[in-house]
Write a sequence for this structure.
DNA sequence: ACGCATGATTTCCG
DNA sequence: CGGAAATCATGCGT
């Protein structure tokens, strides 16, 4: 529009003589030049002013008439000129502000909580976050609280998404509407694309401030849910007998090195979860249990003596049963990472057995006499008994005494020198839990 | 109500 | 980051 030749040098009254059509018309009316023009312009302005009061059809017709009016280009130019003077002041005022920190915070949180993330992944992300908060438990979390939490979260998530979508849709609708309107109006008055853009920006800002409110309330809801969940999480439920039995069995049969590997933990968790009738039990819980057990055992070995003997006997019986059956399908978990896949066939156990032999030899040759050897031996012996190579686990009960702990001042000391025999760490994968 | 057992959390360390 | 140790908080038998 700025390219339009400046035919008008001043507004209203004077310099209109330049317009060809205008002067032509003026002479025809016969009135005073100035009067006629004024009246004409006043007429048009009046029409414009009242255009909003008319019905749609009427307005449409009027609009058309106005657009075709011979004075229209002139008026357009006047508007152009006025605009040119005001637009500069507007320009200065409109600079885009930096992205709102508050909004970013909310966005980040929603993303972290899995509310605004990808569809299904969101739930698991949130669960993972919750599990992480609970002390590093990952994997199968099918506890009642988790499912409850997830259900609530997905509810929030759903509401959030539908609302967001609604807002977005409304925003788009409104924006296109305004844009159409402005485009339409740009025929009667000068509107630059930049201005339209600016208008759209304003609209978007308005809508995003509404969105922010939505996000804020969603965040609040999540926080409330989370705190409630965390509080609930702190509640302690004792494991049932079977679960404790399984854990104790593992503990006492690996007394010399009661550090289950990740695989072993997982297996234990699975096993306990089955016997415990689905709910609870994951790696974190198993870790907790072993942590507590180790500490408390070490603190007061005497108190646990009876228990130790009992489980020793039990595992011994288990071992004989297993060996006579020729299968170790449900013996207390495999302590080695080699069998992590769960397949633990004979050839595999044969390999293990060989390595066990060599390891023992090495240890004794290297004068690594002492508890570490002892500890390895008894762990390995357990492995052997599991693999059906031996049925000698019966003699193990004596090894389950505190000797194996006390003699070397704790598991820490016992396991540390085992790294000395690390060249034989191949079979030492039995001890992968310590290296992990 | 009390005390012990025990699961969970926190803090510290290598 | 995994484990030890300390601590918290609850479950449960008395």
């Amino acid at each position: 529009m700025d390219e339009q030749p400046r035919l008008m040098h001043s507004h209203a009254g004077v310099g209109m003589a330049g317009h060809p059509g205008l002067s032509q018309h003026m002479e025809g009316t016969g009135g005073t030049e100035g009067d006629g023009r004024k009246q004409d312009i006043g007429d048009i302005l009046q029409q414009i002013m009242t255009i909003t009061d008319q019905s749609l059809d009427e307005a449409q017709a009027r609009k058309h008439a106005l657009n075709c009016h011979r004075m229209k280009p002139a008026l357009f130019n006047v508007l152009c000129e006025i605009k040119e003077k005001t637009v500069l002041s507007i320009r200065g005022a409109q600079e885009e502000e930096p992205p709102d920190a508050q909004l970013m915070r909310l966005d980040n949180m929603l993303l972290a909580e899995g509310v605004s993330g990808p569809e299904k992944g969101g739930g698991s992300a949130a669960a993972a976050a919750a599990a992480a908060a609970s002390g590093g438990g990952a994997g199968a979390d099918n506890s009642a609280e988790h499912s409850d939490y997830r259900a609530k979260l997905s509810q929030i998530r759903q509401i959030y998404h539908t609302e967001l979508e609604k807002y977005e849709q409304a925003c788009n609708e409104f924006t296109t509407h305004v844009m159409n309107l402005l485009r339409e109006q740009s025929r009667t008055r000068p509107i630059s694309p930049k201005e339209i853009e600016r208008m759209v920006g304003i609209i978007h800002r308005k809508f995003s401030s509404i969105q922010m409110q939505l996000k804020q309330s969603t965040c609040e809801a999540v926080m409330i849910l989370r705190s409630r969940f965390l509080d609930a999480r702190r509640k302690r439920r004792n494991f049932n007998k079977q679960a404790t039995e399984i854990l104790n069995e593992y503990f006492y049969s690996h007394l010399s090195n009661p550090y289950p590997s990740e695989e072993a933990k997982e297996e234990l968790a699975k096993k306990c979860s089955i016997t415990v009738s689905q709910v609870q039990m994951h790696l974190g819980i198993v870790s907790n249990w072993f942590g507590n057990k180790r500490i408390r055992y070490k603190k007061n070995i005497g108190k646990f003596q009876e228990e130790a003997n009992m489980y020793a006997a039990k595992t011994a019986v288990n071992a004989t049963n297993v060996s006579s059956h020729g299968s170790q399908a449900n013996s207390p978990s495999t302590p080695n990472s080699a069998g992590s896949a769960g397949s633990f066939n004979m050839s595999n156990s044969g390999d293990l057995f060989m390595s066990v032999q060599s390891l023992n030899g090495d240890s004794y040759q290297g004068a690594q006499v002492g508890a570490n050897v002892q500890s390895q031996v008894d762990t390995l012996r357990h492995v052997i008994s599991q693999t059906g190579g031996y049925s000698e686990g019966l003699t193990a009960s004596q090894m389950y005494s505190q000797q194996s702990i006390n003699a070397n001042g704790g598991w820490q000391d016992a396991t540390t020198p085992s790294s000395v025999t690390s060249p034989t760490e191949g079979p030492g994968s039995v001890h992968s839990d310590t290296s992990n």
About this structure: Residues 101-120+143-234 of chain A form one domain. The first helix of chain A runs from residue 20 to 29. Residues 134-135, 233-239, 284-285, 288-289, 292, 296 of chain A lie near DNA strand B (CB under 10 Å from a C1'). Chain A has a mean pLDDT of 64.
